[in-house]
Amino acid sequence: MLVKTTPDWLALTVEQRIEAFRTQVVPAIEERTKGVRSRFYDTEFYSARVTDVWVWEAVDHEAYQLLVDALRETPFWDRWFEVAEILVGVENGYARNYGVDAVASVAT
């Protein structure tokens, strides 16, 4: 999920941001769906179009759909962040589809 922070979000202190996410976003997600987790990447120093990338992993498509529904019911969606684009993918989907081992690089 490619997002851009809004002036409302930037007006909050770091402590207020953490508290807002813990009290308004996380509970909404936990009430609506199970089997999702997120990772967060800052990109504002590399991109003017988006400021952050939120990678959401879900156990299935229904869990992901419920996640998006939950986010839309919180200030995350369109108040604190503008959702610029949603890119959905399946990790190593080609390998599963063709019954081959995934080709990936390995850090040495």
Automatic annotation (TrEMBL):
One Pfam family recorded for the sequence: Darcynin
Organism: Amycolatopsis nalaikhensis
Record's protein name: Darcynin
Family classification: Belongs to the darcynin family.
